[in-house]
């Protein structure tokens, strides 16, 4: 994770420029529309804060978190929002969030650690809370051309992880896009609800 964070610290400005947009994309718009009024949302791996700002603009409170110090600084500099530096191992709390936006962030976690991270998110989420998760698809794990660590998942594998943590997937989208490293990669987005009975630890 250290090498990955070094890349994001060094590339925070480039990342902010590459992925800036003035309105939510269709996936974020869908997520926002499904939230209860005045929801409390965790933006896990918020990057420079574009999604956090758009969620806040829709009337919700946002906990913007990222492992990169430079990304956290960018959130306040670009959007005037508070943000905090936090690693996946530092996810805490119980029954806090109405929604969790984990858009292409957890793909940096080693495969063996994904179950504990999803269990922590399930504990932090309120029953019935909405989770959005975006991942690159494929198999294996390892560094990309920039040195960032990635874990790749199939749809079945990611679905199994979510259901084991107590989330019930109800929407998916797939596609291919060019990322910061310059490669065009396939991806998968799943949105899920935490079961009313909570997590299945």
Automatic annotation (TrEMBL):
Keyword Coiled coil found: no
Keywords per UniProt: Methyltransferase, Transferase
Superkingdom: Bacteria
Annotated ranges, domain Methyltransferase: 41-128
GO MF annotation terms: methyltransferase activity
Gene3D superfamilies, per the entry: Vaccinia Virus protein VP39 (3.40.50.150)
Coiled coil: none
UniProt xrefs under InterPro entries: Methyltransf_25, SAM-dependent_MTases_sf
GO aspect biological process, one term: methylation
Name of this protein: Class I SAM-dependent methyltransferase
The organism of origin for this protein: Harenicola maris
